[in-house]
Write a structure and sequence with these properties.
The complex is a heterodimer of chains A (423) and B (498). Chain A is of the alpha/beta class. Chain A has helices spanning 10-22, 44-48, 62-67, 127-137, 150-160, 182-194, 291-305, 376-384, 389-392, 410-419; strands spanning 2-6, 27-32, 70-74, 77-81, 86-89, 92-96, 99-102, 106-108, 121-122, 142-146, 165-169, 198-200, 205-210, 216-221, 226-228, 231-234, 238-240, 256-258, 269-271, 276-278, 318-323, 326-332, 341-347, 354-360, 363-370. Classes of the chains: A alpha/beta (423), B mainly alpha (498).
């Protein structure tokens, strides 16, 4: 049995490791055109900023793959042949498979903006982007980042580290406010501005101007403003990478359509991670594009590739990020317009820490933390056990995960929440 | 659809070419501009260096308080002020921008210069004291003479090379401690820890021992434990302390209680960090002067294998030397007569001088700041065994938040592949971890936390120390290779009970 895995990101690699565990004798091949070895994509920014070397971003030593008998094939797949069950590769002989996992991830959105193909215009997605960005920064003085999300702020931080004046064009009224509640969004905005970057809210990109040499020279916004810049970062979200999958009969919508067992419409072909769109009977399709869901779906796909029939359980949502020096953690459902939801919000007087507890009629459904670290297991347990505010508020200290000797805020947070009429 | 031509043309070799420093023409961020205050501080330090050179060359002020202040005083003042002023006005937080682009911190030419300079200093101190002005006659010249007024004040005797060494060492911990304090001003664990290593170096390792000299009492560093200070429990020192009147018996009791009682008890309660990252002098220097080089420690599996052999080999050697000497001593010289003392000399030379000093500190800019602590220190080995098997300390992984970026592993001075644990949601329970807390500080996702809690909850099998020990002996592969065994995306990190 030979399983080919298209993509060596976290989804593909999690699948390969789990599959090796379940099937010690199967042949497993990881195929990628981007890099020979698996690296941590979220660490791209740290390589660019000189915090780490490329090799430090690789979660496993190079010799690990041989020791696990996982074959690594470096090459771009140009066509998926479902009849003959093989992957056609650019400049290389094809690779035959018995079962296939699609783990192609996602790619940055481009909305057909005039000038989006000029030199100096790019996203932050992979290793190739680091190469072009490094060159583009030499001699550049100003940059515009389009789109206010997690990757946007990473790109902004990277450009800032090269001494560029960075301006964000944020479509929303405040930063990432489609995900963050107003107060947290403003906390992030203050953090961005504290580092000297400029925010243009409720502003969209109209066009990118050529400087006369085929390079970006300025952007024009929908407010009619013209911002001279040499680099334009496009970080307006990502979409499933269907580049070669669209050419096959495999059913796709926004992503590769799969059932709860991560099976595609083609026999022996599975899909997982950012590229997969899970059909949920009677509900909206699931398109989850964060690190842990890629890992979870990869492992599940491996089990089902190996013969299991387990269905995907998304579990209780969580995520985290860092905006410059401001850490962010979220657990459960926050800002999702759940019927009857209300929230308690506490902010430290210094404006760099906050806690939000979202509840429905006193039953806790979500947490948002800014500048504080809380314990995943505890938050998850409270949500899963449908604990009430009366149960949670006196126990906030259990969730404390800041380093030792840090000031604890549990008591003042609980007191503030009680004043807000919670308990 | 299909792939676009640009993608297919992507033929970049990320392994060979890597992603180097910014090409020429790239501007510097505001944080890296050298401001007027910082320039003034550097000028002060340069003046101090000049004053030092003049005095070593036999200048007029050599051996006076004025000369000492103008040389080491200005050097220390400028050296402490420069990083302070450089960071003041910038937002507090982790700032590692460009660390791998600069020669000094990325094993470039400047790094080698720093390594050769520090190695050379150790070579002079150990083997060429007269080059420093210590001729063994109580008539110091040159560099040693510069610190003579301080030696006469504190010890009541003329300065020696060892006094000079103590002054340099303590100044390095304090001056670079200021840098550490400022670098981590957003992190109270790091700040308090930096205060602690500064205090123990200044008071326990420098001032009090020198006052013992002043009082004509036997010499003892109060933060020194056996087997790091191997001779503290050797027959020679023990009989010196026993026979000395005055403070002798107290000092002997102090050394014995610290080594034999405080060591296991405190390690049980807090892990080996109570010593290695809070009290120890070697640790103090590594955490202050050595901080800029922590990212250079090797995380490879081969380094892990070498480390296990070396550090436990040194522990075995010091235990053997101690046994030989006591056997020799208690049998009145009948046992091990001809080789107890040569072995002692051998240990003192190769391990005490070359390994811990020349290589241990001199190679900071080349192999990272914990070379000695990681590969050679018998104290770290012994504390490590306790920490692994009998301790409440662990680094807890916060559920499934790890996204494998590798900052934790990169900045682990002990070369632990922290990520291998974090990405599978497991606690880090390692003999070598000194508990500096930097992995938790640099983690951009709030994944790691140093904690003390019931020992049995730290890892599967923690309630069977002996089995864990035997299991460890059988291991042939490092933790990175085991990462796939228990991968669990949402984490199984076992938090201590509340």
């Amino acid at each position: 049995m030979h399983v080919a895995i298209l993509g060596n990101g976290v989804t593909g690699v999690s699948a390969a490791l789990r599959l090796r565990q379940l099937q010690p004798d199967w042949r497993i091949t990881l195929v990628s055109g981007e890099s020979t070895h698996h690296y941590s994509r979220p660490a791209l920014m740290y390589v660019f900023m000189g915090h780490m070397r490329y090799r430090d971003t690789k979660p496993f030593e190079d010799s690990f793959w041989g020791a696990q008998r996982l074959a690594l094939l470096r090459g771009w797949v140009t066509r998926i042949d479902l009849e003959q069950k093989r992957l056609e590769l650019h400049d290389q002989p094809p690779l035959a498979w018995d079962r296939l996992l699609l783990a192609t991830g996602s790619k940055p959105n481009r909305f057909g903006w005039p000038g989006q193909d000029l030199a100096g215009v790019q996203g932050l997605w992979g290793l190739a982007d680091l190469v072009t960005l490094r060159e583009a920064c030499a001699g550049a003085r100003a940059a515009v980042v389009v789109g206010g999300g997690l990757i946007g702020v990473e790109l902004g931080e990277m450009l800032h580290s090269r001494g560029l004046e960075v301006t964000f064009l944020v479509r929303e009224r405040s930063y990432w406010d489609n995900v963050l509640p107003r107060e947290e969004s403003q906390l992030v905005e203050r953090e961005i501005e504290r580092h000297g970057l400029v925010l243009r809210r409720a502003t969209q990109l109209r066009a990118i101007e050529d400087d006369g040499s085929g390079r970006a020279g300025a952007v024009v916004t929908d407010q009619g403003e013209r911002l001279p810049c040499q680099i334009v970062g496009l970080t307006a979200g990502v979409s499933p990478n269907l580049d070669v999958i669209r050419d096959t009969p495999i059913r796709c919508a926004r992503g590769v359509l799969v059932d709860a067992q991560l099976r595609t419409s083609a026999a022996d072909v599975f899909a997982a991670g950012d590229c997969a769109e899970i059909e949920v009977p009677g509900a909206r399709n699931l398109l989850q594009q964060v690190w842990y869901t890629g890992k979870q779906q990869g492992e599940l796909a491996a089990e089902n590739l190996a013969g299991a029939t387990r269905a995907y359980d998304p579990g209780i949502w969580f995520n985290s990020a860092k905006f410059f020096d401001l850490e962010y953690q979220t657990y459960g459902r926050v800002n999702l317009q759940v019927p009857g939801e209300a929230s308690l919000y506490w902010e430290h007087p210094d404006g760099t820490k906050s806690v939000r507890i979202v509840h429905v009629g006193g039953t806790v459904i979500g947490f948002n933390l800014m500048g504080l670290r809380w314990r995943h297991a505890v938050c998850e347990r409270w949500i899963a056990e449908e604990r009430t505010l009366a149960h949670v508020l006196p126990r906030l200290d259990e969730a404390h995960f800041d380093p030792e000797l840090y000031r604890r805020h549990a008591r003042e947070i609980a007191a503030a929440f009680t004043r807000q009429g919670a308990a | 659809m299909g792939l676009d031509a640009r993608t297919l043309a992507h033929a970049f070799d990320e392994e060979a070419q890597g992603f180097g420093p910014p090409p020429p023409g790239t501007t510097l961020p505001p944080e890296e501009h050298v401001g007027p205050g910082q320039r003034a501080a550097l000028a002060l330090a340069a003046l101090g260096a000049l004053a030092l050179v003049l005095q070593v060359g036999g200048g007029a002020w050599a051996g006076t308080w004025g000369g000492l202040g103008a040389s080491f005083g200005l050097l220390a003042l400028g050296g402490a002020l420069a990083p302070w002023l450089a960071r003041r006005g910038t937002p507090p937080g982790i700032r590692h921008d460009g660390l791998f682009f600069r020669g000094l911190t990325a094993r470039g030419a400047l790094g080698w210069v720093a390594g050769v300079f520090m190695t050379g200093l150790y070579v002079l101190i150990y083997w060429f004291p007269s080059a420093l002005g210590d001729h063994g006659d109580g008539q110091p010249t040159g560099l040693v003479r510069v610190v003579d007024p301080l030696a006469r004040l504190v010890t009541g005797t003329p300065a020696s090379r060892w006094f000079l060494y103590g002054v340099l060492y303590t100044l390095a911990v304090l001056v670079f401690g200021v840098r550490m304090w400022m670098k981590y001003r957003h992190n109270r664990y790091q700040q308090v820890r930096t205060l602690s290593v500064g205090f123990f170096q200044l008071a326990f390792a420098w001032l009090l021992p020198n006052l013992l000299v002043y009082l004509r009492e036997p010499y003892l560093e109060f933060n020194g434990l056996w087997p790091l200070k191997y001779d503290y429990l050797w027959p020679g020192k023990v009989s010196e302390l026993r026979s000395a009147g005055g403070l002798g018996p107290f000092l002997l009791t102090w050394a014995a209680v610290a080594s034999l009682v405080a060591m296991p008890v405190l390690t049980y309660l807090y892990g080996k960090r109570w010593y290695c990252a809070w009290v120890c002098g070697c640790g103090g220097l590594a955490e202050t002067l050595g901080d800029p080089w922590r990212q250079l420690s090797s995380k490879t599996d081969s380094a892990w294998r070498l480390e296990r052999w070396l550090i436990h080999g040194v522990l075995g050697a010091v235990a053997l030397a101690t046994l030989l000497l006591w056997g020799h001593d208690l049998s009145g010289g009948r046992l091990f007569g001809s080789w107890a003392h040569p072995f002692k000399e051998w240990y003192g030379f190769y391990i005490g001088a070359i390994f811990s000093g020349v290589v241990g500190v001199g190679f900071y800019p080349l192999l990272g700041n914990r070379v000695w602590c990681r590969f050679g220190c018998p104290q770290a080995a012994l504390l490590g065994l306790f920490q692994r098997l009998f301790s409440r300390f662990r680094i807890t992984t916060n559920g499934g938040q790890c996204m494998s970026c590798g900052n934790c592993s990169t900045y682990c001075e002990m070369g632990i592949d922290v990520r291998a644990y974090a990405q599978r949601g497991a606690n880090v329970v390692r003999a070598s971890c000194v508990g500096c807390g930097v992995c938790a500080a640099v983690c951009p996702r709030g994944v790691l936390r140093l904690e003390n809690g019931p020992p049995g909850e730290r890892f599967a099998g923690a309630d069977d120390p002996w089995g864990t020990f035997l299991d460890g002996l059988r291991r042939r592969e490092g933790p990175g290779y085991a990462a796939w065994e228990g991968s669990c995306p949402t984490g199984t990190g076992t938090a201590p009970r509340q």
